[in-house]
Amino acid sequence: KTPLRSHIRSDVVRMKGPHKFPTGISLMNKVALITGITGQDGSYLTELLIAKGYNVHGIVRRSSSFSTGRIDHLYRDPHDPLRQLTLHYGDLADSTSLRRILEAVQPDEIYNLAAQSHVKVSFEQAEYTGDVVATGTLRLLESVRDVVARTGKPIRYYQAGSSEMFGAAPPPQSETTPFYPRSPYAVAKVAAYWYTVNYREAYGLFACNGILFNHESERRGETFVTRKITRAVGRIKYGLQKKLYLGNLDAKRDWGFAGDYVEAMWRMLQQATPDDYVIATGEAHSVREFLEAAFARVELDWRDYVEIDPRYFRPTEVDHLLGDASKARQHLGWQPQVSFPALVARMVDHDLELARREALVRAST
Ligand code: NDP
Ligand code: GDR
């Protein structure tokens, strides 16, 4: 495998536009720029856009260990004339890097997925979360505004909004439900939402907010509750772990499959006019129900393994999220393909296989 990180472009500033990149792809191909490309959604969106023939550019932040595991399978050597993926170092906390990358890439579409996306962590790192999620969005929008004004080239912008913005608002929640955020993360997402609306109205930017309810997959970060549960199910089944410590089991979420949700992001940017859309399954389940389904998949009873640890409680909780995605169904023709039982099954099956391999490695050392 090519060590991906060594090929991240730091010399992009010397390039004049996307046509200068040695991709070999037709000049007619659309160019997309994705922030948060190394995250769960970034990886699915990159797959989708590459399949559609886009040249995809992604912003990654520097870290001391590799963060590109979710997109390594999409990467090709920079000298490969057919490659469609280029990575750039940048950070939502660093407006200079954003501006430089935008100038060089001059994308047709931008998907702003980057965030400190963990709700509980946002209570511990509130200021940082606000800086990246809210002010980071503002930095990016300001760069887009300037590049569009200077070049005259239209850029379509997608903002990763969240059902967390509804917070304490009673279900079901739709585009007309007033926001009532319950965490620093959610407050920052509300600010980002309104920045996006304001740039659309003030500067005529083609900017959309996707208000996405929880979406999961086998690529979900392991500290989010669904993946934490399915990882534990696999490891418990193979004798690698004895207990699973969780917080509030009563919270209800509208859980869909991430692969379905990135399709909705793309569809929003293909419309004649920009707008905001709720994306959800219309079905809510409690954390307890997720536990039941995940452990039942391997014929275990979750009650034998789960213990409550108050450290996972949040200062303010979001009790019940249930989305009404009628507008997306009507305008985008979007609807989810993966049901709740199918989602749980694919995550558990994936993590069983991970645990099986882990057990083999342990046994052989
Ligand atoms: P992840 O946490 O998996 O990915 C977040 C991405 O943002 C990672 O690529 C991360 O990089 C990057 N990132 C974090 N901080 C910065 C920064 N300062 N500058 C540049 N990049 C940064 O999130 P998801 O893929 O699950 O979610 C994508 C977006 O959608 C997020 O904005 C999230 O808040 C939002 N969202 C997610 C939902 C869900 O259920 N998944 C629902 C609704 C909204 P690194 O890999 O280096 O950490
Ligand atoms: P959420 O997802 O906060 O909805 O944000 P998370 O999986 O973290 O929590 C869901 C619910 O489960 C409860 N819970 C636990 N959560 C975690 N992480 N760990 C535990 O041990 C645990 N025990 C119980 C939580 O209290 C909560 O009620 C996700 C993120 O992807 C956001 O970025 C995104 O905006 C929203 O979904 C929509």
UniProtKB/TrEMBL annotation:
<dbReference type="InterPro" id="IPR016040">
    <property type="entry name" value="NAD(P)-bd_dom"/>
</dbReference>
<dbReference type="GO" id="GO:0070401">
    <property type="term" value="F:NADP+ binding"/>
</dbReference>
<keyword id="KW-0521">NADP</keyword>
<keyword id="KW-0456">Lyase</keyword>
<protein>
    <recommendedName>
        <fullName>GDP-mannose 4,6-dehydratase</fullName>
        <ecNumber>4.2.1.47</ecNumber>
    </recommendedName>
</protein>
<dbReference type="GO" id="GO:0008446">
    <property type="term" value="F:GDP-mannose 4,6-dehydratase activity"/>
</dbReference>
<dbReference type="GO" id="GO:0042351">
    <property type="term" value="P:'de novo' GDP-L-fucose biosynthetic process"/>
</dbReference>
<dbReference type="InterPro" id="IPR036291">
    <property type="entry name" value="NAD(P)-bd_dom_sf"/>
</dbReference>
<comment type="function">
    <text>Catalyzes the conversion of GDP-D-mannose to GDP-4-dehydro-6-deoxy-D-mannose.</text>
</comment>
<feature type="domain" description="NAD(P)-binding">
    <location>
        <begin position="33"/>
        <end position="347"/>
    </location>
</feature>
<dbReference type="InterPro" id="IPR006368">
    <property type="entry name" value="GDP_Man_deHydtase"/>
</dbReference>
<comment type="similarity">
    <text>Belongs to the NAD(P)-dependent epimerase/dehydratase family. GDP-mannose 4,6-dehydratase subfamily.</text>
</comment>
<dbReference type="Pfam" id="PF16363">
    <property type="entry name" value="GDP_Man_Dehyd"/>
</dbReference>
<feature type="binding site">
    <location>
        <position position="157"/>
    </location>
    <ligand>
        <name>NADP(+)</name>
    </ligand>
</feature>
